[in-house]
User: Fold this.
Amino acid sequence: MPEDKPIYVTQPALPPLDEFVASLEIIWNNRILTNNGPFHCQFEKELADYLGVKYISLFSNGTLALVTALQALKITGEVITTPYSFVASTHALWWNNIKPVFVDIEPATCNLDPEKIEAAITPLTTAILPVHVYGNPCNVYRIKEIGDTYGLKVIYDACHTFGVTINNEPLLSYGDLSVMSLHATKVFNTFEGGAIVCHDETMKKRIDYLKNFGFAGETTVVAPGINAKMNEVQAALGLLQLKRVDEYIEKRKQIVEFYRENLKGIHGLSVMKDMEGVRHCYPYFPVFVEEEVFGMSRDALYERLKQHNIFGRRYFYPLISQFPTYRGLESAQPGKMPMAEKITEQVICLPLFPDLDKTTIEKLVNLIL
Ligand SMILES: *Cc1c(COP(=O)(O)O)cnc(C)c1O
Assistant:
Protein backbone atom coordinates (compact mmCIF):
# COMPACT_ATOMS: atom_id res chain seq x y z
CA MET A 1 0.00 0.00 0.00
CA PRO A 2 1.38 3.42 -0.90
CA GLU A 3 2.08 5.89 1.88
CA ASP A 4 -0.82 8.35 2.45
CA LYS A 5 1.54 11.27 2.72
CA PRO A 6 4.53 11.44 0.39
CA ILE A 7 7.85 10.57 2.02
CA TYR A 8 10.58 12.77 0.59
CA VAL A 9 14.32 12.27 0.74
CA THR A 10 14.42 14.74 3.59
CA GLN A 11 12.16 16.66 5.93
CA PRO A 12 13.60 19.61 7.84
CA ALA A 13 13.98 19.29 11.59
CA LEU A 14 12.57 22.23 13.55
CA PRO A 15 12.43 23.27 17.22
CA PRO A 16 9.04 23.63 18.99
CA LEU A 17 7.17 26.60 17.51
CA ASP A 18 6.58 28.34 20.87
CA GLU A 19 10.32 28.69 21.41
CA PHE A 20 10.70 30.30 18.01
CA VAL A 21 7.75 32.62 18.66
CA ALA A 22 9.45 33.79 21.85
CA SER A 23 12.52 34.71 19.78
CA LEU A 24 10.35 36.52 17.25
CA GLU A 25 8.81 38.58 20.05
CA ILE A 26 12.28 39.76 21.03
CA ILE A 27 12.98 40.77 17.42
CA TRP A 28 9.64 42.60 17.18
CA ASN A 29 10.39 44.49 20.39
CA ASN A 30 13.94 45.59 19.63
CA ARG A 31 13.36 46.21 15.90
CA ILE A 32 16.78 44.97 14.85
CA LEU A 33 16.18 42.72 11.88
CA THR A 34 19.61 42.27 10.32
CA ASN A 35 23.11 43.82 10.06
CA ASN A 36 24.93 42.06 12.85
CA GLY A 37 22.09 42.16 15.38
CA PRO A 38 22.14 40.50 18.81
CA PHE A 39 20.92 37.08 17.61
CA HIS A 40 23.45 37.14 14.76
CA CYS A 41 26.33 37.89 17.17
CA GLN A 42 25.25 35.21 19.61
CA PHE A 43 24.68 32.58 16.94
CA GLU A 44 28.00 33.28 15.26
CA LYS A 45 29.78 32.77 18.57
CA GLU A 46 27.85 29.67 19.65
CA LEU A 47 28.15 28.07 16.22
CA ALA A 48 31.93 28.59 16.19
CA ASP A 49 32.14 27.02 19.65
CA TYR A 50 30.02 24.05 18.62
CA LEU A 51 32.05 23.45 15.48
CA GLY A 52 35.36 23.91 17.29
CA VAL A 53 36.55 26.71 14.99
CA LYS A 54 37.72 30.20 15.83
CA TYR A 55 36.51 32.30 12.91
CA ILE A 56 33.19 31.95 11.16
CA SER A 57 31.09 34.41 9.14
CA LEU A 58 27.38 33.81 8.75
CA PHE A 59 25.74 34.13 5.33
CA SER A 60 22.23 34.28 3.91
CA ASN A 61 22.90 31.05 2.00
CA GLY A 62 25.67 28.66 1.00
CA THR A 63 25.88 29.72 -2.64
CA LEU A 64 26.60 33.36 -1.82
CA ALA A 65 29.12 32.14 0.75
CA LEU A 66 30.88 30.15 -2.01
CA VAL A 67 30.86 33.13 -4.38
CA THR A 68 32.23 35.36 -1.62
CA ALA A 69 34.90 32.85 -0.53
CA LEU A 70 36.36 32.95 -4.05
CA GLN A 71 36.26 36.77 -3.97
CA ALA A 72 37.95 36.88 -0.58
CA LEU A 73 40.92 34.91 -1.90
CA LYS A 74 40.86 36.75 -5.26
CA ILE A 75 40.76 33.48 -7.15
CA THR A 76 41.01 33.81 -10.95
CA GLY A 77 41.80 31.71 -14.03
CA GLU A 78 41.12 28.00 -13.63
CA VAL A 79 39.95 26.05 -10.60
CA ILE A 80 39.99 22.28 -10.27
CA THR A 81 36.73 20.87 -8.98
CA THR A 82 34.46 17.83 -8.96
CA PRO A 83 31.57 17.11 -11.33
CA TYR A 84 29.90 15.03 -8.60
CA SER A 85 28.21 17.72 -6.50
CA PHE A 86 25.29 20.09 -6.36
CA VAL A 87 25.49 22.59 -9.26
CA ALA A 88 26.15 25.54 -6.95
CA SER A 89 29.77 24.53 -6.37
CA THR A 90 30.54 25.06 -10.08
CA HIS A 91 28.12 27.98 -10.50
CA ALA A 92 30.10 29.87 -7.83
CA LEU A 93 33.18 29.62 -10.08
CA TRP A 94 31.25 30.83 -13.11
CA TRP A 95 29.89 33.84 -11.20
CA ASN A 96 33.51 34.78 -10.55
CA ASN A 97 34.53 34.42 -14.19
CA ILE A 98 36.60 31.38 -13.33
CA LYS A 99 36.90 28.38 -15.63
CA PRO A 100 35.94 25.12 -13.88
CA VAL A 101 38.24 22.19 -14.64
CA PHE A 102 36.54 18.91 -13.75
CA VAL A 103 38.51 16.00 -12.33
CA ASP A 104 37.24 12.46 -11.65
CA ILE A 105 36.20 11.11 -8.25
CA GLU A 106 37.26 8.14 -6.12
CA PRO A 107 34.61 5.46 -5.60
CA ALA A 108 35.06 4.87 -1.85
CA THR A 109 34.00 8.41 -0.88
CA CYS A 110 32.66 9.92 -4.15
CA ASN A 111 35.08 12.81 -3.52
CA LEU A 112 37.57 14.43 -5.89
CA ASP A 113 40.36 11.91 -6.52
CA PRO A 114 43.55 13.59 -5.25
CA GLU A 115 45.71 11.41 -7.47
CA LYS A 116 44.10 12.95 -10.56
CA ILE A 117 44.47 16.59 -9.54
CA GLU A 118 48.07 17.15 -10.62
CA ALA A 119 47.44 16.13 -14.23
CA ALA A 120 44.80 18.86 -14.50
CA ILE A 121 47.00 21.71 -13.23
CA THR A 122 47.96 24.35 -15.84
CA PRO A 123 49.74 27.72 -15.52
CA LEU A 124 46.27 29.27 -15.12
CA THR A 125 45.26 27.12 -12.13
CA THR A 126 44.92 29.13 -8.91
CA ALA A 127 42.89 26.91 -6.61
CA ILE A 128 41.22 23.58 -5.88
CA LEU A 129 37.54 23.44 -4.91
CA PRO A 130 36.78 19.96 -3.55
CA VAL A 131 33.47 18.95 -1.98
CA HIS A 132 33.13 16.74 1.11
CA VAL A 133 30.40 14.73 -0.61
CA TYR A 134 27.79 13.11 1.70
CA GLY A 135 29.84 14.57 4.57
CA ASN A 136 32.69 12.12 3.85
CA PRO A 137 35.96 13.98 4.42
CA CYS A 138 38.08 14.50 1.32
CA ASN A 139 41.68 13.34 1.55
CA VAL A 140 42.56 16.66 3.20
CA TYR A 141 46.16 15.66 3.90
CA ARG A 142 47.00 14.84 0.26
CA ILE A 143 45.08 17.85 -1.05
CA LYS A 144 47.00 20.13 1.32
CA GLU A 145 50.26 18.67 0.06
CA ILE A 146 49.29 19.35 -3.56
CA GLY A 147 48.10 22.86 -2.70
CA ASP A 148 51.34 23.63 -0.89
CA THR A 149 53.53 22.17 -3.64
CA TYR A 150 51.87 24.02 -6.51
CA GLY A 151 50.97 27.19 -4.62
CA LEU A 152 47.23 26.66 -4.98
CA LYS A 153 44.52 27.80 -2.59
CA VAL A 154 42.08 25.19 -1.31
CA ILE A 155 38.44 26.08 -0.75
CA TYR A 156 36.29 23.27 0.57
CA ASP A 157 32.62 23.07 -0.24
CA ALA A 158 31.61 21.76 3.19
CA CYS A 159 27.87 22.13 2.56
CA HIS A 160 27.24 18.46 3.42
CA THR A 161 29.20 18.47 6.65
CA PHE A 162 28.07 19.68 10.02
CA GLY A 163 30.18 18.97 13.08
CA VAL A 164 32.20 16.33 11.21
CA THR A 165 35.57 15.59 12.79
CA ILE A 166 38.57 13.70 11.43
CA ASN A 167 41.01 12.23 13.96
CA ASN A 168 39.29 14.42 16.56
CA GLU A 169 39.90 17.62 14.62
CA PRO A 170 37.14 19.65 12.97
CA LEU A 171 37.06 18.91 9.25
CA LEU A 172 36.50 22.65 8.82
CA SER A 173 40.02 23.38 10.01
CA TYR A 174 41.39 22.18 6.65
CA GLY A 175 41.70 24.29 3.53
CA ASP A 176 42.17 28.05 3.27
CA LEU A 177 38.41 28.42 3.59
CA SER A 178 35.46 26.08 4.10
CA VAL A 179 31.95 26.95 3.03
CA MET A 180 28.84 25.65 4.76
CA SER A 181 25.17 25.63 3.82
CA LEU A 182 22.40 25.85 6.43
CA HIS A 183 19.65 25.27 3.87
CA ALA A 184 16.39 23.55 4.78
CA THR A 185 17.55 20.24 3.27
CA LYS A 186 20.78 20.06 5.28
CA VAL A 187 21.50 18.37 8.63
CA PHE A 188 21.37 21.77 10.36
CA ASN A 189 19.08 24.43 8.93
CA THR A 190 18.20 28.08 9.47
CA PHE A 191 15.54 27.90 6.66
CA GLU A 192 18.22 29.25 4.30
CA GLY A 193 21.70 30.06 5.52
CA GLY A 194 25.39 29.60 5.06
CA ALA A 195 28.80 30.34 6.53
CA ILE A 196 32.48 30.64 5.72
CA VAL A 197 35.07 29.28 8.11
CA CYS A 198 38.53 30.88 7.97
CA HIS A 199 41.63 30.77 10.13
CA ASP A 200 42.54 34.32 11.08
CA GLU A 201 40.91 37.54 12.14
CA THR A 202 42.10 39.57 9.14
CA MET A 203 40.43 37.17 6.73
CA LYS A 204 37.22 37.11 8.76
CA LYS A 205 37.13 40.90 8.65
CA ARG A 206 37.59 40.86 4.89
CA ILE A 207 34.82 38.30 4.44
CA ASP A 208 32.53 40.37 6.65
CA TYR A 209 33.20 43.45 4.49
CA LEU A 210 32.48 41.49 1.33
CA LYS A 211 29.13 40.15 2.52
CA ASN A 212 27.99 43.69 3.41
CA PHE A 213 28.61 45.65 0.18
CA GLY A 214 32.28 46.11 1.08
CA PHE A 215 31.49 48.55 3.92
CA ALA A 216 34.39 48.88 6.38
CA GLY A 217 32.75 51.70 8.33
CA GLU A 218 29.85 54.10 7.88
CA THR A 219 31.40 55.94 4.93
CA THR A 220 34.17 53.61 3.72
CA VAL A 221 33.78 50.97 1.05
CA VAL A 222 36.88 48.83 0.55
CA ALA A 223 35.66 46.27 -1.97
CA PRO A 224 32.87 45.71 -4.49
CA GLY A 225 30.98 43.59 -1.99
CA ILE A 226 27.64 41.90 -2.22
CA ASN A 227 24.68 41.60 0.13
CA ALA A 228 24.85 38.13 1.65
CA LYS A 229 24.07 38.83 5.30
CA MET A 230 22.19 36.43 7.54
CA ASN A 231 19.15 38.07 9.15
CA GLU A 232 17.98 37.96 12.77
CA VAL A 233 15.16 35.48 12.12
CA GLN A 234 17.59 32.96 10.63
CA ALA A 235 20.09 33.50 13.47
CA ALA A 236 17.41 33.17 16.17
CA LEU A 237 16.33 29.86 14.64
CA GLY A 238 19.96 28.75 14.43
CA LEU A 239 20.39 29.21 18.17
CA LEU A 240 17.39 26.95 18.85
CA GLN A 241 18.60 24.35 16.34
CA LEU A 242 22.04 24.27 17.94
CA LYS A 243 20.52 22.93 21.17
CA ARG A 244 19.12 19.97 19.26
CA VAL A 245 21.59 19.19 16.53
CA ASP A 246 23.33 16.40 18.46
CA GLU A 247 19.96 14.71 18.83
CA TYR A 248 19.24 15.18 15.09
CA ILE A 249 22.56 13.57 14.18
CA GLU A 250 22.06 10.70 16.64
CA LYS A 251 18.63 9.92 15.15
CA ARG A 252 20.09 10.03 11.63
CA LYS A 253 22.83 7.68 12.71
CA GLN A 254 20.31 5.16 14.05
CA ILE A 255 18.38 5.21 10.76
CA VAL A 256 21.58 4.76 8.77
CA GLU A 257 22.56 1.80 10.96
CA PHE A 258 19.13 0.26 10.42
CA TYR A 259 19.40 0.70 6.64
CA ARG A 260 22.92 -0.76 6.60
CA GLU A 261 21.92 -3.76 8.68
CA ASN A 262 18.87 -4.53 6.56
CA LEU A 263 20.36 -3.91 3.13
CA LYS A 264 23.50 -5.86 3.83
CA GLY A 265 24.47 -8.76 1.59
CA ILE A 266 22.14 -7.89 -1.29
CA HIS A 267 23.91 -8.65 -4.54
CA GLY A 268 24.30 -5.63 -6.77
CA LEU A 269 23.49 -3.13 -4.04
CA SER A 270 26.19 -1.34 -2.10
CA VAL A 271 26.12 1.24 0.65
CA MET A 272 28.80 3.39 2.29
CA LYS A 273 30.59 2.59 5.53
CA ASP A 274 31.70 4.92 8.30
CA MET A 275 35.28 6.06 7.73
CA GLU A 276 37.93 5.31 10.32
CA GLY A 277 38.57 8.16 12.77
CA VAL A 278 35.62 10.19 11.47
CA ARG A 279 32.61 11.49 13.38
CA HIS A 280 29.97 11.57 10.65
CA CYS A 281 26.82 13.71 10.46
CA TYR A 282 24.79 11.37 8.17
CA PRO A 283 23.29 13.90 5.74
CA TYR A 284 22.33 11.36 3.03
CA PHE A 285 21.98 7.63 2.60
CA PRO A 286 23.22 6.82 -0.91
CA VAL A 287 22.69 3.33 -2.33
CA PHE A 288 24.55 2.21 -5.46
CA VAL A 289 22.69 -0.10 -7.83
CA GLU A 290 24.64 -2.35 -10.18
CA GLU A 291 21.88 -3.19 -12.64
CA GLU A 292 23.28 -6.44 -14.13
CA VAL A 293 23.76 -7.98 -10.70
CA PHE A 294 20.80 -6.49 -8.84
CA GLY A 295 18.42 -7.31 -11.69
CA MET A 296 16.81 -3.88 -11.73
CA SER A 297 18.12 -0.51 -12.83
CA ARG A 298 18.59 2.43 -10.49
CA ASP A 299 15.85 4.30 -12.36
CA ALA A 300 13.47 1.34 -12.09
CA LEU A 301 14.08 1.28 -8.32
CA TYR A 302 13.47 5.02 -8.18
CA GLU A 303 10.14 4.53 -10.02
CA ARG A 304 9.11 1.61 -7.82
CA LEU A 305 9.59 3.68 -4.67
CA LYS A 306 7.74 6.57 -6.30
CA GLN A 307 4.73 4.34 -6.97
CA HIS A 308 4.56 3.81 -3.22
CA ASN A 309 4.71 7.57 -2.60
CA ILE A 310 8.33 7.39 -1.47
CA PHE A 311 10.70 9.76 -3.20
CA GLY A 312 14.38 8.93 -3.35
CA ARG A 313 16.69 11.45 -5.02
CA ARG A 314 19.39 10.73 -7.54
CA TYR A 315 22.12 12.81 -5.85
CA PHE A 316 24.19 13.39 -7.96
CA TYR A 317 22.66 12.74 -11.34
CA PRO A 318 23.36 14.08 -13.88
CA LEU A 319 26.93 15.19 -13.22
CA ILE A 320 27.48 18.96 -13.22
CA SER A 321 29.69 18.44 -16.28
CA GLN A 322 26.73 16.85 -18.11
CA PHE A 323 24.40 19.84 -17.81
CA PRO A 324 24.00 21.82 -21.05
CA THR A 325 25.63 24.86 -19.38
CA TYR A 326 28.91 23.07 -18.77
CA ARG A 327 29.09 20.13 -21.16
CA GLY A 328 30.98 22.17 -23.77
CA LEU A 329 34.01 22.48 -21.50
CA GLU A 330 37.03 20.43 -22.46
CA SER A 331 37.22 18.66 -19.10
CA ALA A 332 33.52 17.77 -19.33
CA GLN A 333 33.76 15.58 -22.42
CA PRO A 334 32.29 12.05 -22.15
CA GLY A 335 34.81 9.38 -21.17
CA LYS A 336 37.09 11.80 -19.30
CA MET A 337 35.77 10.91 -15.85
CA PRO A 338 34.88 7.20 -15.99
CA MET A 339 34.30 6.79 -12.25
CA ALA A 340 31.93 9.76 -11.90
CA GLU A 341 30.15 8.76 -15.12
CA LYS A 342 29.55 5.27 -13.74
CA ILE A 343 28.50 6.25 -10.21
CA THR A 344 26.05 8.92 -11.36
CA GLU A 345 24.08 6.17 -13.15
CA GLN A 346 24.02 3.94 -10.06
CA VAL A 347 23.20 6.23 -7.18
CA ILE A 348 19.94 6.83 -5.38
CA CYS A 349 19.65 8.50 -1.97
CA LEU A 350 16.98 7.01 0.28
CA PRO A 351 14.86 9.12 2.65
CA LEU A 352 16.80 10.11 5.76
CA PHE A 353 15.71 12.61 8.39
CA PRO A 354 15.36 12.58 12.19
CA ASP A 355 11.58 12.07 12.25
CA LEU A 356 11.52 9.22 9.72
CA ASP A 357 9.62 6.44 11.49
CA LYS A 358 10.64 2.81 11.73
CA THR A 359 7.52 1.44 10.00
CA THR A 360 8.21 3.52 6.90
CA ILE A 361 11.85 2.45 6.79
CA GLU A 362 10.88 -1.21 7.15
CA LYS A 363 8.37 -0.86 4.32
CA LEU A 364 10.93 0.90 2.19
CA VAL A 365 13.52 -1.78 2.80
CA ASN A 366 10.99 -4.45 1.80
CA LEU A 367 10.35 -2.64 -1.48
CA ILE A 368 14.05 -2.97 -2.25
CA LEU A 369 14.56 -6.58 -1.17
C1 LIG B 1 23.31 22.81 -0.63
C2 LIG B 1 24.60 22.88 -1.34
C3 LIG B 1 25.10 24.07 -1.85
C4 LIG B 1 24.31 25.35 -1.89
O1 LIG B 1 23.93 25.82 -0.65
P1 LIG B 1 22.65 26.77 -0.54
O2 LIG B 1 22.63 27.14 0.91
O3 LIG B 1 21.45 25.98 -0.95
O4 LIG B 1 22.88 27.96 -1.40
C5 LIG B 1 26.35 24.05 -2.43
N1 LIG B 1 27.08 22.92 -2.52
C6 LIG B 1 26.62 21.75 -2.05
C7 LIG B 1 27.48 20.54 -2.15
C8 LIG B 1 25.36 21.69 -1.45
O5 LIG B 1 24.89 20.51 -1.03
